Recover the amino acids of this structure.
């Protein structure tokens, strides 16, 4: 592999970004041999005059285009062609290849970007600055600052706009809480998640009370996002020297305690066993009492068992999880339409109130949130809330202002995957702590040769 500098990545050509980095550094995990990459699902006629192509990995963006944007701008909506790549595991690989071929009929004019890799794209030549397509600071005035930062390159140029804000929380199942914690009062349960020491004590309490048929968490990785998305130090400093925030060590040590004391079922997030533990009864079948979450997680990821059974409590750290940015490409065929879509879905108060009415998103617009709360809308998070005293939107209201995403970098998605490997090795006793941390630094350097180890 050609060795490049971080400066090459940040300011290099799209060709360098694609061939030297995307192909070797930012690929999603290799697919199992037996898996077949799905065909793109294309809605609309990309060969039609005036076709405007939008890319996403599922139909979330399509849904708000089909409903919210179509209702406001039916003529412009009729031009949209939507490409669904069939899952996030395939998205970047497919997208990067097409971004290198502007002559491709499916070259994106507008594309969605997840938080986990948005910085890869904002710090490339593939995207346009929103200022260059007519979106102003006034348009973005009601956004949460952390989302503005996530969508900006390292020089502060905004390239991606988010329609969601995603403050972190824990979702607690009420029937299990009543059985094993003796309460369904949100304040009393919140006290059980006040800090990591208290969380460990709560995990022991649930495990002992249930005889192991109910655990506080399905896997130790439920604490990962709260710690990784509240770091005060990034994975490297201004001199490109690899740095590890104390939250990294805290995560490894807490994960090992949870593993050693058998306080979780040691599942991996999104696995079949992880999902199964959402639905257990906690007596005859294994169940997890709590999952780390955020607004979208509650209504999109929790199973129907949690309908009317979900109590939200604050995460022990101010943090975030996920979110989708919209970005116009360098070869966008119609920047006026790109700006219109981005402005209406990610800036306009009316548009964002409509998004919330459509899917209960906690939108990235403080004025829209104030209107939603005043109207009493989205009180139950699409039917998931247990307590009438908990308004879904109001719960998150004071949890987004102080979020800090300044430590997020273009390399984070891959580094966090490397961290998973070392965390498992330490938790299971394969490595000691010092070795796991040293190996993490070494693997980061091996992946990104421009980042050094001191």
């Amino acid at each position: 592999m050609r060795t490049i500098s971080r400066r090459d990545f940040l300011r290099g050509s799209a060709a360098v970004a694609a061939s030297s980095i995307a192909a070797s550094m930012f690929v999603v995990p290799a697919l199992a041999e037996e898996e077949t990459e799905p065909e793109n699902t294309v809605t609309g006629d990309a060969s039609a005059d005036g076709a405007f192509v939008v890319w996403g990995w599922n139909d979330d963006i399509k849904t708000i285009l089909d409903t919210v944007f179509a209702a406001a701008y039916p003529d412009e909506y009729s031009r949209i062609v939507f490409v669904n790549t069939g899952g996030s595991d395939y998205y970047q690989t497919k997208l990067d290849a097409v971004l290198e071929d502007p002559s491709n009929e499916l070259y994106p004019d507008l594309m969605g970007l997840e938080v986990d890799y948005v910085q890869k794209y904002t710090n490339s030549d593939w995207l346009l600055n929103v200022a260059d397509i007519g979106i102003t600071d006034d348009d973005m005035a009601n956004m949460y600052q952390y989302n503005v930062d996530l969508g900006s390159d390292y020089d502060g140029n905004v390239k991606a706009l988010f329609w969601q804000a995603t403050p972190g929380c824990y979702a607690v199942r009420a029937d299990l809480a009543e059985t094993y914690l003796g309460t369904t009062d949100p304040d009393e349960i919140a006290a059980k998640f006040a800090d990591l020491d208290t969380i460990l004590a709560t995990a022991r309490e649930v495990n002992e009370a249930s005889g192991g048929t109910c655990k506080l968490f399905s896997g130790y990785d439920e604490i990962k996002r709260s710690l990784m998305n509240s770091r005060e130090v990034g994975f490297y400093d201004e001199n490109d020297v690899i740095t590890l925030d104390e939250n990294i060590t805290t995560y490894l040590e807490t994960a090992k305690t949870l593993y050693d004391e058998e306080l979780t079922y040691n599942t991996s997030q999104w696995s079949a066993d992880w999902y199964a533990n959402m639905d257990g009864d906690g007596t005859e079948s294994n169940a997890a009492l709590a999952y780390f979450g955020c607004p979208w997680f509650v209504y999109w990821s929790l199973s129907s068992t949690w309908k009317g059974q979900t109590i939200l409590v604050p995460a022990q750290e101010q943090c975030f999880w996920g979110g989708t940015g919209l970005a116009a490409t360098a070869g966008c065929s119609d920047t006026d339409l790109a700006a219109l879509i981005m402005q209406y879905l990610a800036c306009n108060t009316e548009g964002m109130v409509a998004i919330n009415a459509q899917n209960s998103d906690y939108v990235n617009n403080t004025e829209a949130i104030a209107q939603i709360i005043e109207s009493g809308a989205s009180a139950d998070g699409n039917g998931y809330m247990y307590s009438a005293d908990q308004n879904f939107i109001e719960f998150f209201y004071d949890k987004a202002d102080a979020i800090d995403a300044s430590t997020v970098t273009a390399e984070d998605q891959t580094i966090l995957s490397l961290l998973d490997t070392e965390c498992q090795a330490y938790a299971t006793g394969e490595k000691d702590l010092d070795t796991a941390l040293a190996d993490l630094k070494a693997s980061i350097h091996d992946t990104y040769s421009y980042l050094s180890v001191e």
